[in-house]
Design brief:
heterodimer, A: 276 residues, mainly alpha, 79% helix, 0% strand, flat, B: 192 residues, Rna Polymerase Sigma Factor, Chain: A, 11 helices
Chain lengths: 276, 192
C-alpha cells in the first residue's frame, strides 16, 4: 500500500470503517512508514481531543418549553391549512368529480362539432374529396419513384461505360448485355412519357431527354468497331454531363426529408413561370 | 420502523400527538446537532424549534426513502446554512460569554466538582473555537461523523454529496482542527 493510499484511508481508520483486510495492510504500512504513522497518530489525537467535551444535558423543562413553542407553530400551520395531506380516499371524491366534469365537457365538444359538421357537409362530398386527393398523391408518388429508379439504373450503366479503361479488352464491358439494358431503359422512358405528358420539373425533363440520347447510342452501337462506339458514347456522356446531373438530382432527393424532390421542383418551376 | 411510519402518517393528517411522539424520539439528536453547529444554546433551541416546525409543514414531502432522523438532519443543516447566510456571522460565531459558561456548568455538570467543571468548560471552549474555524460544509460533516456517529455513507446521503467528498472534507477538517488545537495540545498532553 502506498503512502497516498494510506492517507486516503485515515478517515476510515480513525472511525473504524475499514474492513479487516484493508486494516491489516494499513497497519502493516504504518509499522514501516514513520511519516504516515506520525500523521495518523496526530489525527487520532485530534479526534480524541474533540471527543473530550462534556455534552450539555438539557433539563426536562427545556424540552417542555421547546415543545410548547413547536406545538404553537404546528397549530398555526394546522389552522392555516385545515388538512395537510388528506387521505387518498378523501381526496379521490373531489378528484373523481373533476374527472367526470372534464370527460363530460370533452364529449359535449365532440358531439357539438359533429352536429355542426353534419349540418354543413355531406359525407359523400368528403369521401370523394379524400379519394381524389389520395389517388393524386399515390400517382404522383409512383411517378416520382419510377423516374428516380430509371435514373439510378441508367447511372449504373453509364458508370460502367465511363469507368471502362480503353486498354482493357471490350469483352469486360459485355456490350450485348449493355445494349439490352439500354433498350429496356428506353422503353421505361417512353412508358413514363406516355402515362403523363408533363414532367415534374424542366431540369428533370432535360436530363431524361439527354439520357434518352445516350441510351439510344448504346442500344444502337454495332458489334463491329466496339471500341470506337464506346469512345463515342463516352464523349456523349462527358459532353452532356449526364452523371453529374443525375448525382445532383439524387442529392436533392436525399436532402428533402420526405424524399419528394420532384414535386418541390415542379412548384419551383411553376413559380418561375408565374414570375416570368 | 413500522411504528415510526405510522406516526408520520398520522402526523401528516394533522395529529399533533403523533408529531409529539416523533419530536420526543428525535429531539435530542436534533438539538445536539443544532448545538454543535450553532455553538450556543439559544441558537440551538431556536434552530431545533424551526426544524420541527419546518418538518411538520413539509411532512408530506417525506417519502420514506431514508430514515426520519436522517431527513431531520438534512433539514437542520439546510436551515442552519440558510440562517448563516441570512444573518451576520456575528450571531452564529458568538463568543461564549462568562454567563453562558456558568449556565452550562450549572445545567450540565452539576455532579462534577468545581475544578473538574472549570476544566471541562475550558475544553468545551477550545473545541467550540476550533469548530468555528471550519467551513459550514466541514463543520456539518465533522459534527455528523464525530458527535452523531453516523456512517460516512449515511452522511453522503444526508448531504447529497459523494462518499469521496465526505472523506476528503473530513480529512481537511481534521487537518484544520489539528492546526487550531495545536496551541492547546500542550495542556491536553499534561492531562493525559
Amino acid at each position: 500500500m502506498s503512502c497516498r493510499k494510506v492517507r486516503s484511508l485515515f478517515i476510515d481508520a480513525i472511525y473504524d470503517e475499514l474492513d479487516r483486510q484493508k486494516r491489516d495492510s494499513f497497519d502493516k504500512h504504518l509499522r514501516r512508514c514513520k511519516r504516515c504513522s506520525e500523521e495518523y497518530s496526530e489525527m487520532c489525537r485530534v479526534a480524541e481531543i474533540m471527543t473530550r467535551r462534556v455534552r450539555a444535558k438539557p433539563s426536562k423543562e427545556m424540552w417542555e418549553r421547546l415543545w410548547d413553542e413547536i406545538s404553537r407553530g404546528v397549530v398555526d400551520i394546522k389552522s392555516s391549512r385545515p388538512f395537510i395531506v388528506p387521505e387518498r380516499e378523501e381526496r379521490s371524491i373531489g378528484f373523481k368529480i373533476r374527472w367526470i366534469y372534464g370527460i363530460a365537457a370533452a364529449l359535449g365538444l365532440i358531439l357539438g362539432g359533429l352536429l355542426i359538421w353534419r349540418s354543413n357537409f355531406r359525407v359523400s362530398d368528403f369521401r370523394d374529396f379524400m379519394a381524389r386527393s389520395e389517388f393524386k398523391k399515390e400517382s404522383m408518388e409512383s411517378k416520382d419513384k419510377r423516374i428516380y429508379d430509371l435514373l439510378l439504373q441508367s447511372k449504373v450503366l453509364i458508370l460502367a461505360l465511363n469507368n471502362f479503361d480503353p486498354e482493357d479488352d471490350t469483352y469486360v464491358l459485355n456490350m450485348p448485355y449493355q445494349r439490352k439494358i439500354s433498350q429496356r431503359l428506353l422503353k421505361k422512358i417512353w412508358s413514363i412519357r406516355s402515362s403523363s405528358k408533363e414532367f415534374d420539373s424542366g431540369a428533370l425533363e432535360d436530363v431524361v431527354c439527354d439520357l434518352e440520347v445516350v441510351l439510344l447510342q448504346i442500344a444502337n452501337s454495332g458489334d463491329e468497331n466496339e471500341r470506337e462506339s464506346i469512345e463515342m458514347i463516352r464523349e456523349g456522356i462527358e459532353r452532356l454531363h449526364i452523371l453529374f446531373r443525375i448525382n445532383m438530382i439524387e442529392m436533392k432527393r436525399v436532402d428533402v426529408a420526405d424524399g419528394n424532390i420532384m414535386r418541390k421542383d415542379r412548384y419551383k418551376d411553376k413559380e418561375k413561370k408565374d414570375v416570368g | 420502523m413500522y411504528r415510526e411510519f405510522d406516526l408520520i402518517r398520522h402526523a401528516c393528517k394533522g395529529d399533533i400527538d403523533a408529531f409529539r411522539r416523533l419530536f420526543e424520539e428525535n429531539n435530542r439528536r436534533i438539538f445536539f446537532l443544532a448545538l454543535d453547529l450553532t455553538g450556543n444554546i439559544h441558537d440551538a433551541e431556536d434552530l431545533t424549534q424551526e426544524v420541527f416546525i419546518s418538518a411538520f409543514s413539509s411532512l408530506e414531502k417525506f417519502r420514506g426513502e431514508s430514515r426520519f432522523s436522517s431527513w431531520l438532519y438534512r433539514i437542520t443543516i439546510n436551515l442552519w446554512i440558510n440562517r448563516r447566510r441570512k444573518k451576520s456571522l456575528e450571531i452564529f460565531n458568538r463568543k461564549i460569554n462568562s454567563s453562558e459558561l456558568e449556565r452550562m456548568q450549572k445545567t450540565d455538570n452539576s455532579s462534577l466538582d468545581p475544578e473538574r467543571c472549570a476544566e471541562s468548560a475550558l475544553v468545551e471552549l477550545n473545541i467550540k473555537k476550533a469548530l468555528e474555524r471550519l467551513s459550514a460544509k466541514e463543520r456539518s460533516i465533522f459534527v455528523l461523523k464525530h458527535y452523531h456517529d453516523l456512517k460516512l455513507k449515511e452522511i453522503s446521503e444526508i448531504l447529497g454529496i459523494s462518499l469521496g467528498t465526505v472523506k476528503s472534507t473530513l480529512f481537511r477538517a481534521m487537518r484544520r482542527l489539528r492546526k487550531e488545537l495545536d496551541f492547546y495540545r500542550s495542556e491536553f498532553d499534561v492531562e493525559v
